[in-house]
Amino acid sequence: MTNSSSVSEFLLLAFADTRELQLLHFALFLGIYLAALLGNGLILTAVACDHCIHTPMYFFLLNLALLDTGSISTTVPKATANSLWDTRAISYEGCAAQVLFFLFFFGAEFYLLTIMAYDRYVAICKPLHYGSLLSSRVCAQMAAAAWGSGFLYAVLHTANTFSLPFCQGNAVDQFFCEIPQILKLSCSDGYLREVWILLFSISLALVWFVFIVLYYVQIFKAVLRMPSEQGRHKAFSTCLPHLAVVSLFLSTVMFAYLKPLSLSSPTLNLVVSFLYSVVPPAVNPLIYSMRNQVLKDAVWKFLQYMLLQINNVL
């Protein structure tokens, strides 16, 4: 990834020019980051420690919490530090690492959301085959495929992007290193190769989106045919959080990358990137715990255990 004709560092877009607003952004980002770590950390610990919920749905939820923690930890700490220390700089290597890890977690999460839709489809439409179609081995293989696909996706884009020479300055119009903004700094026709790869990635994402839609069409058909109102309520309570997470994830990403050029502006780009890179990892734990009594009970059981341990120590 080393490129002798490249700049040695990049300048990220600042949220504000005045010191007071910079400190306000620092406090806001720090609060969101700590809330995301707390929410995802509670889900991770509760699912890992409670053997009663060691099922495919919660196994995939654990993976989602891991990805969300990694995703928000890639972008927010640097933006928080920049606001605190009144700087915009990020090293060339740091920018490349940020792109690599963000795309890794971002790509793996999209594949995982598709797998989670398949999990709900099998649970509701083919309950008698659930144990065989989603055995422990199959779940582990599917999760590994999501993580592996995200890693390959990230390596491909990062290596291709940072093999380009940059001669259009070093100011990135974004609060973190984002490929479309970095490509604007390239002075080589090689950036067209990365554009085609990005277009291919968008096409592939649309294919996975179609799969998610088809799964949910079958799910809603099956739920509406259920004679028991209690059964319908239980099915919806497990599907709606996932559907809300998918909708939040895809709507913000699609608006960020498919919005008309006439709507583009540094301020709007900053807000949209915040919505798709920071909001979902912070909000997902809240969405999943809001209607899931089993998860609430597991978290509460863990908190009670921790309080008991603290009281014993004191």
Describe this structure in words.
The chain contains 11 helices and 2 strands. The protein is mainly alpha-helical and 314 residues long. Strands 1-2 form a two-stranded antiparallel ribbon. The protein is globular, with a radius of gyration of 21 Å. The relative contact order is 0.14. The model has no long low-confidence stretch (mean pLDDT 83). Residues 39-288 form the G-protein coupled receptors family 1 profile domain. Belongs to the G-protein coupled receptor 1 family. Keywords: Cell membrane, G-protein coupled receptor, Membrane, Olfaction, Receptor, Sensory transduction, Transducer, Transmembrane, Transmembrane helix. Odorant receptor.
By DSSP (H or I, 4+ residues per run), the number of helices equals 11
User: What is the name of the CATH class?
Assistant: Mainly Alpha
Write down the CATH topology: Rhopdopsin 7-helix transmembrane proteins
> What percentage of amino acids are in beta strands?
under 5%
Note poorly predicted spans: none
Look at the helices and sheets and give the structural class. mainly alpha
Distance between the termini: 52 Å
Features:
314 residues, Rhopdopsin 7-helix transmembrane proteins, 11 helices, 76% helix, globular, GPCR_Rhodpsn, GPCR_Rhodpsn_7TM, Olfactory receptor, G protein-coupled receptor activity, G-protein coupled receptor
List the helices and strands and how they pair.
Blueprint: E1 9-11, H1 19-49, H2 56-85, E2 89-91, H3 92-125, H4 130-133, H5 136-161, H6 179-183, H7 191-224, H8 229-258, H9 266-277, H10 279-290, H11 293-313
Antiparallel strand pairs: 1-2
Helix pairs in contact: 1-2, 1-10, 1-11, 2-3, 2-10, 3-5, 3-7, 3-8, 8-9, 8-10
